[in-house]
Amino acid sequence: MKDQHRATIADYSTIYELLHRVEALEVAAKLNHPEKPDSSLVERVADAIVAKATSAGIVNDRPARAAIREVAAWLRKEFPYGARGWAMRLEREAKR
Predict the structure, then answer these.
(1) Which of 1, 38, 69, 89 is most solvent-facing, going by the fewest CB within 10 Å?
(2) Are 52 and 58 spatial neighbours (Cβ–Cβ below 8 Å)?
């Protein structure tokens, strides 16, 4: 342990400066790209439930099945290669 590096005040000063630069970049990124969820899925599910619920002769689970199918369609659109299995699973669930 004879060759152990010991940080100097200049080293700490550099680290401190880098920390503040990273924090400033994070703040700027949040200002330019606020964390806003994509509401299109919520709108699609709400529209599907309203459309099915207002039809005549609806069984209680039909709006929920329509909503599940909309979620599956959204997954296929938004994640065409990564969520295919989940979309298929949701579609199977909606058919039961």
Answers:
(1) 1
(2) yes
Long-range contacts: 36-41, Cβ < 8 Å, 24+? 38/78, 40/74, 41/70, 41/71, 41/74
**Residues 49, 56: Cα–Cα separation, whole Å:** 13
Half-sphere exposure of 74 toward its Cβ, with a 13 Å CA cutoff? 15
pTM, full prediction: 0.44
What residue ranges do the domains of the chain occupy? 40-95
Q: Are 73 and 47 in contact (CB under 8 A)?
A: no
**Cα 29 from Cα 46, distance rounded (Å):** 31
- CA separation for the pair 90, 69 (Å, rounded): 7
* DSSP structural state of residue 81: T
**How far apart, in Å, do the first and last CA atoms of the chain sit?**
67
